[in-house]
Each structure stands twice: as C-alpha cells, then as structure tokens.
Design goal:
The protein has 344 residues and is an alpha/beta fold. The strands form two sheets. It has a seven-stranded parallel β-sheet with strand order 8-7-6-9-10-11-12. β6, α7 and β7 form a beta-alpha-beta unit.
Length: 344
C-alpha cells in the first residue's frame, strides 16, 4: 500500500508511529536532555505522532502498536500473526540491516511496506574486527592490567612480558563473506601487510573485488590456510554452524577465529572445546547464538576467548547514521516514494 496521507480536503495530520525498542538506537526519548553527540528522536518526532518505548515484551506488542500506522523495531519480532492483527499498519521500519524479525511474506500480502537500513555500521564493525584481532595478537589490555597490578615494577628488566605477542604483517587473513564489511576488512588487512584469502563465492569476479590482491579458496582450504579467520556471511540455513567441530580441526593450532557476523555461524560448544584443548590459539566474538548469554555459556570464560556484548555496530557515529537513515526512510514513505524496501 502507498504512503499514509490525509484524505482529500481533510486537515493535514501526522500519522501515528510507535517505536517498540528504541533503547537499541538511543536511550533518550523526545524532549529529554540528551548528552552531546548522541542521536535523538527529534527529527522523527517532527514528521509523525511519535511514541517511543525503550523495550516491549511480546505480550505488549499488539497493545502498544494496535493503533499505529507506522511501527519501528530492531529486535522485537513482528511475526505473521502480529502483522495480520495490526489492522492500521502500513509501514514497518527495521532499525537495523537484518530483517528476520519481520514476516516479510505476510507484510507483502497485507500491503505493508518494510524497509531496513543497510551499511550504516560498516566502518564501526571493521574497526571492531581489528580491535579484537589486535588485542588477541598484542595482548595490550593483559599487559596494561599486569602493570597496574605491579608486575612491571617488580620486573628485573626494562621490558616486561606476560606472554608472547604476534605481528600481523605477513599473516594470512581469511574472510568468509566478501560483502561490504568483508571487503573493507580485506582492505584494512592488506594495508597492514597481510595476505588476504577469501572463501569462493558467486561475486568473486566482480570488479569491486579486483581492487585488492585476494586469493579465492574453497571453504575448507580457507579454514586450513588462514592464520586469522573472520566471519562476515549472513546467517542462513546453509551457513548455520558453518564453523563446526570438523572445520575447527582443519584450522592451525596457532590460528584465531573472529566472529562479528551472527552467533549462529559457530558451533559454540565445539569452539569452546577447541579452545580448552588448545587446538585453537584464540577467538574474538561480538555475537553469540543467544543474547544475552546464560551464565554458564561455554564461551564465557573459555581460555583466550574475548567476548564483547554485541557492540561492534553501536558507536555514536554509526547510531547517528542509523537514526538519520531511519528518518529518511520514514520521510520517503510518507511522500509516497519508499526507499530501502525489503518486502518481496
């Protein structure tokens, strides 16, 4: 269905828009004092009759969104039943790139436009990838902690080490998924003097991949050759548990595994076992299959395993770009020219 507009001759009105889980983008609501540089809902509030909820449990979705023509969500699920029950719904804006939280087929059948925000966090995620790689390789935080605890003060020499460190230049960087983020990881790795390897994929001969010297390998060979393996492919049935016990056995004992994609790409129990058995040197993860994890999650506390709480996307700059794109998506829909549409 088209844009939400006032009927001919009727006074102009702003359509009702409900944000179901606004805390994921910014914890601040319209009119509240906002810290400097934090994104705000003010621009969206000027376009629609806006109501922002920090979090919405499943049992309150219909109550809160029942009268809304526009609904924005990040992780709150709008399944087929919910979409069908929201009789006034005309537009769903996903506050992210992935759209698996919305039943797109039902939305299309109901004439509901669904849009997303691609590419807003690419640079932030790439930087987080190398933050994990550098910490696992150089052990900066571990050394700084040892200094604070007096280790250097007690050392007999000018140089104090708590373990070995590794240089990235000359190491092989394996990438699974050479999309926008994977390609930028490749570019940064190449700039650091790394040998870039990538899993063979349909687009590997496109011109965008010819700007860098990339060696394309079958997936299993990539696992066996990479000194550092970084995952950037989407989570689909065919990629679920892509990193399983068999492929972990293919990897070098000195290798590192990095995952900022989706937690479901990794068999977490198998990875924990490989780390505890020292069959893998380390892992850096920003995503897990269940978020937040249980207190007994096999990778929380695993040796040489860095787990960050799904923050690679969440820099202030990335969230500011996300907010601007969300507003633009809504404005375009209201003007009858929707953009970033993902409804099939």
């Amino acid at each position: 269905m088209g844009a939400v507009t006032a009927s001919s001759g009727a006074p102009s009105r702003r359509p009702r828009c409900v944000v179901l889980d606004g805390f994921t983008l910014t914890p601040h609501v319209p009119g509240a004092e906002t810290p400097p540089d934090e994104p705000t809902w003010n621009a969206l509030d000027a376009l629609v009759e806006l109501e922002v909820y920090g979090r919405t449990p499943p049992e309150l979705v219909l109550e809160r969104a029942g009268e809304a023509e526009l609904v924005l969500t990040n992780k709150v699920v709008l399944d087929g039943h919910t979409v069908g029950a929201l009789g006034r719904l005309r537009y769903v804006g996903v506050l992210a790139t992935g759209t698996n939280v919305v039943d797109l087929e039902v939305a299309r059948s109901a004439g509901v436009v669904v849009s997303n925000v691609p590419g807003y966090a690419s640079e932030s995620v790439v930087e987080h990838v190398f933050g994990l790689i550098l910490e696992l390789s150089l052990r900066i935080a571990e050394h700084a902690r040892a200094v604070r605890e007096g280790g250097w003060a007690r050392a007999p020499d000018f140089c104090f080490r708590v373990g070995t460190t590794r240089e990235l230049c000359g190491q092989s960087l394996g990438i699974v998924g050479m999309g926008a983020i994977g390609s930028r990881v490749a570019a940064v790795g190449h700039a650091l003097g790394m040998l870039v390897l990538a899993a063979e994929q349909a687009s590997m001969h496109e011109s965008k991949h010819r700007r860098l010297p990339v060696r394309w390998l079958p997936l299993d060979e990539l696992f066996a050759r990479a000194d550092i393996l970084s995952l950037h492919c989407p989570l689909r049935p065919e990629t679920e548990r892509l990193v399983d016990a068999r492929r972990l056995r293919l990897m070098k004992p000195s290798a590192l595994l990095i995952n900022t994609g989706r937690g479901g790409l990794v068999d977490e129990a198998a990875l924990s076992e490989a780390l505890r058995a020292r069959r893998l040197a380390g892992a850096g993860l920003d995503v897990l299959s269940a978020e937040p994890p249980s207190s007994d999650h096999p990778l929380v506390g695993a040796p040489n395993c860095l787990v960050t709480p799904h923050i690679a996307w969440a820099t202030t700059a990335a969230r500011t770009r996300l907010m601007a794109a969300v507003v633009q998506n809504v404005r375009a829909f209201l003007e009858g020219r929707p953009v970033n549409v993902v409804t099939p």
